[in-house]
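Contributing new records

If you add data, match the layout below exactly. Sequence lines come first and carry their own label; structure lines follow with theirs. Keep one chain per record. Anything else will be rejected by the validation script.
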Amino acid sequence: MIGIIDKIDLPEVGLSGIPCKIDTGADTSAIHCERIRIKEINGVEHLVFTLLDKRHPLYNGVEIKTDKFRERKVKSSFGDYEFRYQVQLRMVIFDKKYRVAFNLTNRKKMKYPVLIGRRFLSKKFMVDVSKHNLSADSKLAK
């Protein structure tokens, strides 16, 4: 069981307790990032970006570089299509580690920097919209 709001950790990039919204209407998970660009390193294209933004209290300024990315055509909540980069990140929730595909996008105007979509949720969690922070609270109880 997972609630409508929770917190996740992204240990590979040194971030813990990131607020997220659980969204069964979203196909794919998304995360706020800035300074997205392609950079050639030793003849190989890398996607370079930072997660969150300087105004977010968890911002750590770590520049992430990966050659494991893809570009996906995504339908926005407004019904428009746009291309977004997608990367796999290790996410921890309920003390379990998962590899999750995140679309990189600007969520600066959104309340939550991370959106967890149904591709990740499917066959793992049931969503109870009346609950909040079940994973975060279970972490504190230990």
